[in-house]
Amino acid sequence: MELLSQVLISGATLGSLYALVGLGFVVIYRATKVVNFAQGEMMMLGAMLALYFYSDLQLPYFLAFLLAIVLSGVFGAGLERFAYRPLLNAPVLTLILATVAVGQMIRAGVRILRGSEVSRFPSILSADPFLIAGVAVTPLSLSIVAIAVVLVCAFMLFFRKTRLGKGMEATSENREAAVLVGISVNQTFSLVWAISSGLAASAGVLLAPLIIITPEMGTIGIKGFIGAILGGFNNIPGAIAGCFLLGIIENLGGVYIASSMKDVISFVVLVLVLTVKPQGIFGAAEGKRA
Amino acid sequence: MKLPPRKQMEFGAIAFVLGACASAPLFLSNYPLFVLSLAIVNTIAVLGLNLVMGYAGQISLGQAGFAAIGAYATALLVVNLDTSYWLAVPLGALLAALSGYILGLPALRLGPLYVSMVTFGFGLIVVIIVQNWYELANGPNGMIVPPPVFFGRELFPREFHVAIVAIAAVLFLLARNIVDSKHGRAFIAIRESEIAARGMGVNLPHYKTTAFALGAFYAGLSGGLFAGLAQFINPDAFVFPVSILYVTMGILGGITTLVGAAIGSAMLTALPELLRGAAEYKDFLTGLLLLLLLIFLPNGIVGFVRQHFTGVLPAKNGQSASGRVATHNVLPTTLQPRGRSENNPILEVENLSVSFGGLKALQNVNLTIRSNEILSVIGPNGAGKTTLFNLISGLNRPTAGRILLDGADITGMSAHSRAPLGIARTFQNLDLFGEMSVLDNVRVGAHTRLKSSLLQAALRTKAERVEEARYCDVAMDLLRFVGLGLYASQKANSLAFGHQRLLEIARALASAPRLLLLDEPAAGLNSSELDFLMDLIRRIHKGFGISVLLIGHTMRLVMTLSNRVVVLDHGVKLAEGLPAEIQRNSRVIEAYLGTDDA
Amino acid sequence: MMLELINVNAYYGRIQALKGISLRVDEGKIVSLLGANGAGKTTTVRTIVGLNRSTANDIRFEGRPIGRIQPHKIVRLGIAMVPERRELFPDMKVIDNLEMGAYSRANADELRRDLDWTYSLFPVLAERRKNRAGALSGGQQQMLAIGRALMSHPRLLLLDEPTLGLAPLIVKQIFATLQKLNQDGMTILLIEQNANQALKLSEYSYILENGQIALEGKSAVLSADPTVQRSYLGAT
Fold first, then answer.
1. Into which CATH architecture does domain B324-593 fall?
2. What is the ipTM of this complex?
3. Residues of C whose CB is below 8 A from B570
């Protein structure tokens, strides 16, 4: 029983990070129909930047966090402007490949700048677990989940309550109608990519103390995508729920099947969901049209 | 057989390249020879990728995964089961093909988004599995493969190189044969327009899984050859950046071509060798190259060359169709007139209803089309006319009611199964296979009449060649019949709009239909083009006794040509009768112009 | 004169949809654009708002050429369009759809006033303001689409087949609302398949055929002209 709760806690921790990354995926997809294969690399970039600001430049943690996210957001907007906007009217396949190319460039670029050395993020919180209702929880995982939840909520507030956020949603639902009411598609896309990159970067920063930081760590990001598909890719709350669920499933599988098979489990889950209900667990079934 | 000059040139170029590659062991030292061998091995994998992604249009981000299956299967068979290398390689390729087929299954119902994820995931999983498989595959430490032996004699490296060249040449030839056959055309049709492909009888599930299987086969073979070439394989050789490298090679050369695979591989295999030791730079540059290609040169080198150096001039907008055509009044021989005297109904639509998400698009529509009749369906915007067409051609299923073709119930049949039964259609907003030639578009129309299998096509058996030639003639005949004979080798996209409409009709006729569905065939035509079209429909109707079901807003066409007219409004049949009756019918007038009360 | 098109050409894909269209809409008037399907009516309004670019783009709004202005800036000039098939934001609430209509405006008070005004025109929208737009009935969706356009406080309202697929009673309601809007000063360019009703409502009409203007004139005069019927049905 204790093992189970442990698994659930670490699953929820991981899941909250997947949710941040997955949210970014979904936002981009809904607005542009593009799968951003570079989303994981944005997460890695966030972690790397945070490492640089906190560890190398010795800035206070909060500042490092903020800078990493903001810079990543700006970088994401820059990517949109120079790499993706020229492909606005190209077939979706081309755009997907472009994100793949960009992801590879970011990964290799970081390796060039920083070498392949492995880094550890200095610990900021004590790793001593304490008990909540009989379950051992570390301050670290608690704060990760807390901050992730705060960020997701902040995003949802922005998305649902502000003019800009609603404009993003409108563009995702009906691009031409959005143009008719005065929303600039280019601006919206810049915003979409900036926010998604920022979200991914924040996941990276939060993840940093938990694992070893390498240029390869971006592959974790794809889990965010899988979690979103699991929950329902066209449905933001569903996607978030799916990501939490994935984190838990993975950890359960990791404990009860084999730790190294975690990734395999995720993909098997993915294929199963796609075969049985492509709209995801919480997604609405689509009507039958030609 | 004397080949045309361009073909002769191509033949010569290919012979030269092959000869150079095969004789390379004579003048290259070990290391450069290895690079050349590697480039050729990569070419095989990229050929497969081009078939799947370039020709069939299915995104595949896991090509390296299939190569891994081929490589590890080969290695395991040779090392652990003492199998002959030359048997292990094709077995490995077949295993890869099977995985490709299985992977193609979920791809059937999913859009490019999900297919990209699934193929990507597949590639990752294969690597993970191999990395964790310590037992036989040695996990991350990799496996050593003994040098390939032929009848007890070690072949390495020179003879092995020649073997690789020979194998690559054969595979290239097979691919070329497939691409030039009905199957290759079916792949391209799927890429260009799934809906039109289905309408022509192309079985989408079959061809999509076949495409994946084919691409995987080539990758698996490439992996097996790589195992013999490098004599050492480990998971690192098949990681995701390798799949991306293949994609980049494909796009660099020109992903919709076969030659492009060789060009892309050659260039990008040499590159990392030049940058040896600086792996980060290699990945970065590959990524950058891919991005730049996508933005500036999406058709690759071969595409660029073809565009700028083979001078096929596109027709200008607004060119009238009637002015340039020489009508060919002789009936195409393979469309024989059918029983003209019968008055049996060809098509019966009984109580047909369909709803889309609560909206009743059609309610209890009844319709009969007799043999040798031209029936028009008219009605205001939103009346349900195209919906009716989609139900008859099988693109949608009704929620109630039946459709009978020659008395047989076809209501539950898929779109591609209806084509061989004698239904063919055109599309309101045109749905041609734009990148294909005009002639090939028509040849796809005859898809269901060609019977050769993929294997027969790959081997270019006599039967297949005869069949292809015959239906090529049929297609040319049809083109001349609609007046497009001069445009046979041009890209369909380059035709003037009016000509494109005619091409769609020729394509539909190629399946020798009994019922021709024309969806707004006159929309966008000017008055002389309209005259030509009307004459053409008359010739089709009189000449072949084909029944025609027509949706139209162009009243001149509808009222002059139709034997009968049916009026739909708000999904319901409002009136039916002779054209003159319909024009005078007050309810019809009201439906179009609105009521008088306000 | 509020809107003027001079010899405008436009392409829809490869079809030349408009071949030298000239028309004008005077301030405070209702003008209708009629014609059979495929005649080019929708292309015309899409060209006006920039969703379809014309090659000869002499389009003037209040004397000023707008043919090269980016489509998302058109609404700021005072032109609002109610698209064919409504094109709402289906997963957003009614109130959000309306607020989106006012995206280009900054003043919160004026916005509040316009929202009340829209609710007074279409009380059902006030009742259902928290409902998902996609869940409304056809007629209600049409009202929402018109309301959304009104929220940008336009001076010129373009409507593309606002009665498509609606029951006759709702059609009556909508036409009555349009009449009221016009009485209050709104200039309207109306595209309709329902020619009779449009001719009754409007002062001046254009009949498009194959991308060209086949007939134009005072609506009252055209109402009685049998050639209108022929344009639709090909009868003599």
1. 3-Layer(aba) Sandwich (3.40)
2. 0.90
3. 165
Chain B contact for A284, CB < 8 A?
no
The residue-averaged pLDDT of A41-49 equals 92
Q: Find out whether A126 and B309 touch, Cβ atoms under 8 Å.
A: no
* C85 closest CA partner among C164, C166, C190, C195: C164
pLDDT band at B441 (very low <50, low <70, confident <90, very high): very high
Structure confidence at residue C235 (pLDDT) = 45
How far apart CA B10 and CA C139 sit, in angstroms, is 64
CA distance A166 to A157: 10
Q: For residue A102, give the chain B residue with the closest CA.
A: B287
Confidence of residue C211 (pLDDT cuts 50, 70, 90): confident
Give contacts of A116 with chain B, Cβ < 8 Å. 280
DSSP codes, chain C: --EEEEEEEEEETTEEEEEEEEEEE-TT-EEEEEESTTSSHHHHHHHHTTSS-BSS--EEETTEE-TTS-HHHHHHHTEEEE-TT----TTSBHHHHHHHHTTT---HHHHHHHHHHHHHH-HHHHHTTTSBGGGS-HHHHHHHHHHHHHTT--SEEEEE-TTTT--HHHHHHHHHHHHHHHHTT-EEEEE-S-HHHHHHH-SEEEEEETTEEEEEEEHHHHHT-HHHHHHHH---
The pLDDT value recorded for residue B332 is 55
Task: Please identify which residue in the block is written with the tokens 């390498």.
Answer: A214
Spatial separation of the C-alpha atoms in residues C18 and C39, rounded to whole Å: 8
B518 pLDDT above the threshold of 90? yes
Place of tokens 């595409």: B303
**pLDDT at residue C14 in the model:** 67
Q: In chain B, which residue's Cα lies nearest the Cα of C176?
A: B598
Q: What phi and psi values does residue C215 have, to the nearest 5 degrees?
A: -155, 145
Predicted confidence at residue C231, as pLDDT, reads: 67
Q: Are strands C3-12 and C59-61 parallel, antiparallel or unpaired?
A: antiparallel
Beta-carbon contacts of residue B458 (< 8 Å; ≥ 6 apart) = B174, B177, B178, B181
Q: Of residues A116 and C140, which shows the higher confidence score?
A: C140
Task: Check pLDDT > 60 for residue B2.
Answer: no
pLDDT at site B317: 34
Residues contacting residue B469 through CB under 8 Å, at least 6 positions apart: none
Give whole-number Cα distances, B326 to B323, B439, B479, B482, B531, in Å: 9, 17, 11, 9, 14
In chain A, where the domains are located: 2-217
Interface of C with A (CB under 8 A): 49, 51, 70-73, 75-76, 80-81, 83, 87-92, 96, 99-104, 148, 152
Backbone angles phi, psi at A253, to 5 degrees: -60, -40
Q: How many CB pairs under 8 A join A and B?
A: 125
One-letter amino acid at B251 equals I
Which one of 3.40.50.300, 3.40.50.1100, 3.90.180.10, 3.30.430.20 gives the CATH number of domain C1-78+189-236? 3.40.50.300
Question: Within 10 A of B441 (CB to CB), how many other CB atoms are there?
Answer: 31
Which position has the token pair 């949603």?
A: A169
Distance CA B394, CA B390 (A): 6
Chain C interface, mutation test: which of A181, A185, A236, A279, most C Cβ atoms within 10 Å? A181
Provide, for chain B, the percentages of residues in helix, strand and coil under a 3-state DSSP scheme, each rounded to the nearest 5.
60, 10, 30
Contact list, A39 vs chain B (CB under 8 Å): none
Q: Is the peptide bond before B157 cis (omega within 30 degrees of 0)?
A: yes
Cα–Cα distance measured from residue A181 to residue C106, given in angstroms and rounded to the nearest whole number: 13
* pLDDT tens-place string over residues B98-132: 999 998 887 777 777 778 888 888 898 899 889 88
Portion of chain B with pLDDT greater than 90, in percent: 51
The Cα–Cα gap between B265 and B17 comes to 14
Structure tokens that stand for B570 in this block: 């708000």
